[in-house]
Amino acid sequence: MPTTEKRRSTRIELDYLKVQLEWTDDNGLPRHQIVSCMDISQIGIRFECPFPFSLGSYVCITFNPGTDIAISVTGQVCRCATQALDTFHVALQINLEDAPQDFGEMN
């Protein structure tokens, strides 16, 4: 049976590109972790992580951390799904107001 695509924008596969996450934990402490980014679209990012995030959490993702071409965007967790081998696939909805000016114009 054919399925209908529900996504509003095309995903670009990133082949598990390493990115840096930054967030505040439940105790108000700043945290950071290097994780594998799976894909990105105009409105979202999906990454693989060794622990879950709560829905609604805010996370900052930095591409090319520690370089002159580092780019950071902020997003809100909209999905967190358990995968095999105790990993989690986490989806963020990107806050385009905080994104670089040309980021929202990706095709």
TrEMBL record:
Domain PilZ: 5-96
Classification via SUPFAM superfamilies: PilZ domain-like (SSF141371)
Identification of the protein by name: PilZ domain-containing protein
GO molecular function: cyclic-di-GMP binding
Domain of life from the UniProt record: Bacteria
One Pfam family of this chain: PilZ
Signal peptide (from-to): none
Protein's organism: Parashewanella spongiae
InterPro entries documented for this protein: PilZ_domain
Transmembrane segments: none
